[in-house]
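User: Can you help me understand a structure? I only have the sequence.
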Amino acid sequence: MDTRISDQISEGGTTLITRICLALIVLICMVGHLGCSQDGGGDNWRLIESGTEAHLHGVHFVDGKRGWAVGTEGLVLATSDGGLTWNEQSPRKAITRHPLNKVHFSTASNGWAVSRMGEVHYTGSSGKSWSKQVTPVENGLLALHFVNATEGWAIGGYGTILHTADGGGRWEKQRTSSNSHLWAVHFADSRNGWAVGEKGAIVHTRNGGKVWLEQRSNTEQPLLGVFFTNANTGWIVGANGLILHTANGGNTWERQTVPVKKSLRDVAFVSPQQGWAVGEEGLILHTADAGITWTPQPTSTTLNLLDIYLHKNRSWVVGAKGTILRRG
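Assistant: Let's start by predicting it. Here is the structure, written out as tokens:
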């Protein structure tokens, strides 16, 4: 064979191999990008065995490993491995016969859970034992939030807002002009907080609850979840796919575009840009641009999702019939 022809075949083969290698590298990079998005919002939600069919209403973690979930008839579940496995820490009816609606731990030892009839339950032993704290109300308490180891708020029916500055040793009522049932509360810091509820109700404080003032939501829809990343930037979620956003502390609220009409029960953000909202029929929405766009993420459940908690690159969601989802 002519050596020139042989050299051309050899060179052509090398070029072809080089092109194939480059194409494979590009393909691998594309798959890697799709499977684990650079913004950390990957949609790899994993369904975790909870060991219960009870409804789980609340979840909270103190770090990437230690967390608690609460639900039907006082049930408390705990995990020490980041939510991969869960154990029944307090069986149903041991703490209360009422559902525990939300849970919050300020340290690995100190936590609170709220329920009906004005019940606040406290643990100083990482959930091994619980005691009922005295409150001045008998209305159902639906949510709570602590800003440090001792100061927190609990909210509930008929505009109820309770405050403690000593870890629940004493709970005092704070005044608000709203008589609406309040379903969610969040504080950006020890002074700036918001509570939301029925018929579009929003109340806000700039002084730790000494004064609560109403804000205009411009909706009559039930508002079910609220989250702020700082004193100015926040989101509210509610019925029929409603998501509201503010960039000025709630002076004005604007509706964001959402691709679904299912009710959303909770919302949380890890940064001013990246957050998730959860709701009916296994719905999880994600945004990487502060809510300019919301995108559904696939889950392996069609049950209602009721609460979400985020810690760095990990996320946990709980819901109906013992549903627990984990990401990260």
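Now, to help you interpret it: The chain has a mean pLDDT of 90. The chain has two domains: 1-35, 42-327. Let me know which part you'd like to focus on.
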